[in-house]
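Example record

The entry below shows one chain as it appears in the dataset: sequence first, then structure tokens.
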Amino acid sequence: MLTQRSRYALRAMLFLAEAPQASPPIPMTRIAQEANVPRKFLELILADLREAGLLVSQRGKMGGYLLSRPRHLISLGDIIRVIEGPLALVPCVSRSAYRRCADCRDEASCAIRQAMLRVRDETARVLDGTSLADAVAQDLAAA
């Protein structure tokens, strides 16, 4: 299940993706208000996204946040991985944090592992295949 923190991160990033390409940095207070995210949570989330290289920030009176690259080059999967970590539901199918399950007798024949591999692959396919630009366009089409 997607955590509230991930939903907040996605909302904030989608709001930033809607800004015109040459717009000035957007203040955190505006992002919080427009994306309906509590400011305290947003501060931590934006720091994580900035450290991961998905955002750039500018300090000062005219400061704020901008996407670090064009919105079509940032996927929903990129954002969720920064906030949640690996997409895999069990550690034995994780690509970045693999760990054998302690109670598993045989990974090769484990039915749970095989199902979770498919879940991970399909989840990654959808999330990595959906950019902020795609999501914004879908949102506008639905409006």
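Notes for this example: The beta strands are 55-58, 64-67. The two ends are 26 Å apart (CA to CA).
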